[in-house]
Write a structure and sequence with these properties.
427 residues; Beta Polymerase, domain 2; six-stranded parallel β-sheet; elongated
Length: 427
């Protein structure tokens, strides 16, 4: 298959490096087209969130080097960042794709947003013609595996999320949230989720500022809050105790001089900034001001880590599902052929008449022998494929050849709804 994955994420690179590789959502279609136009690239897609940016590509050459493609994509030499990049090929690349879709590689293990974001990235690549047969089959299987992980494990049971972590940190800073006000800078899903959590724990006033005022007004209406035009941002943000910001701006929008003015107008009452944007919206220098507390996505990761132990056992079960995706196909094949064998024996039994016990055993042994010989090659192939990157294609081919029902495949309606739904805040 010549599958290659290369990228940076929250585990390999700090936020100041990840923001160098960030790709705004609006630029993704153009970026994917640039990538797939590079020599030797057959198919490609890009998953870009605040915690990861990775290229998934199928190349003509198994030894293809994607670093040149990155240089074309970003316009700079990625060599100085090489130590932060991870790279997977073939079987390891398939496993990585499955783990990402299943939220096993997320900062918050089990969080649901990443699957929606991967589906959006897949839809974007398909829309520009960058994904066809093999990546299409790979991601169809990845989505099925992700559904199995969420259905068959309790990995998503504990509601640890960026939003809940924001509440935890805010309580530590203010002691309690009763009567505190919240300012959302940006109108994405993660801002909305954080606001809901904060309101549920006592915050009582919401302000929303967004470059598109209509989106700000729509979000503010959900909380009986106040929408504010973006040109009034610096004049109004100090009205809030807690600021959640995620704008997608290419540079910081809050700097130290802004923080000094905010504190002066607030008479030094503290402000808490939750910066979930990459590139960051808040200059780290603001954190040096007494009375201003700034947490970016990497700071939040440290808090999240304290909750991971509860999920470890379920995460291990999920890892096993990702690793052994081929097993249900083998079992399904065995059950299918056994059903055929029994049905054929029952069908001809009337013509055979009464059989002695020895004859019954002979028919049983004969029919089982035939079935075992039929099963040998596909099962051997499936087991071998489990160790190779072609497992996705082989599994689908065996299921089609034997007309096997795929119990892991999402219902069409659910799949379509999930694919079209927007995940909002980018994780």
């Amino acid at each position: 298959m010549n599958l290659i994955v290369i990228g940076v994420n929250h585990q390999t690179a700090p936020v100041e490096v990840r923001e160098q590789f960030s790709i705004p959502e609006a630029r993704l279609p153009e970026a994917v087209k640039t990538l797939v136009s590079q020599p030797g690239i057959e198919e490609a897609m890009i998953v870009a969130t605040c915690n990861r940016v990775e290229v998934i590509a199928r190349a003509k050459d198994a030894n293809a080097d994607l670093h040149g493609c990155l240089q074309q994509l970003y316009g700079f030499d990625p060599q100085p960042y090489r130590k932060y990049l991870y790279e997977y090929r073939e079987r390891d690349a398939v496993r990585h794709v499955f783990r990402v879709a299943s939220s096993l590689d997320s900062m918050v293990v089990g969080e649901p947003q990443i699957l929606g974001q991967v589906k959006e990235a897949y839809a974007t690549a398909r829309a520009v013609g960058a994904v066809n047969s093999q990546l299409d089959a790979l991601y169809s299987r990845a989505f099925a595996v992700a559904k199995r992980v969420r259905t068959e494990t309790a990995i998503a049971t504990w509601a640890v999320s960026i939003a809940s972590v924001a509440v935890e940190l805010a309580k530590k800073i203010f002691g309690h949230l009763d009567g505190k006000s919240v300012y959302l800078v940006g109108a994405g899903k993660m801002c909305e989720l954080a606001a809901r959590h904060l309101l549920a724990h006592g915050a009582n006033k919401i302000f929303v500022g967004n470059r598109t005022y209509e989106r700000a007004a729509a979000l503010a209406a959900k909380f009986n809050g106040e929408a504010i035009t973006f040109d009034r941002l610096y004049d109004t943000v100090d009205r809030a105790d807690i600021v959640i910001t995620s704008t997608g701006a290419p540079h910081t929008i809050f700097r130290k001089e802004h923080g000094e003015k905010f504190l002066s107008r607030r008479k030094n009452r503290p402000m808490f900034f939750i910066d979930i944007a990459v590139p960051r919206d808040v200059d780290p220098e603001m954190n040096k001001l007494d009375g201003i507390f700034v947490y970016d996505v990497d700071d939040l990761q440290q808090v999240v880590a304290s909750h991971i132990s509860d999920r470890r056992a379920e995460a291990d079960r999920a890892e096993a599902i990702v690793q052994l995706d081929v097993v249900p196909t083998i079992v399904s094949l065995q059950e299918h052929l056994e059903t055929v064998r029994q049905a054929e024996i029952d069908r001809v039994r009337g013509r055979l008449g009464a059989l002695t016990p020895e004859q019954e055993l002979a028919v049983e042994a004969l029919s089982r022998g035939i079935i075992n010989k039929i099963m040998h090659t596909p099962i051997t192939t499936l087991k071998s494929a489990a160790r190779e990157s072609e497992s996705t294609t082989v599994i689908d081919l065996v299921r089609k050849l034997f007309n096997l029902r795929d119990i892991r495949k999402p219902d069409n309606e659910e799949e379509d709804a999930t694919l079209s739904a927007k995940s909002g805040g980018r994780r």
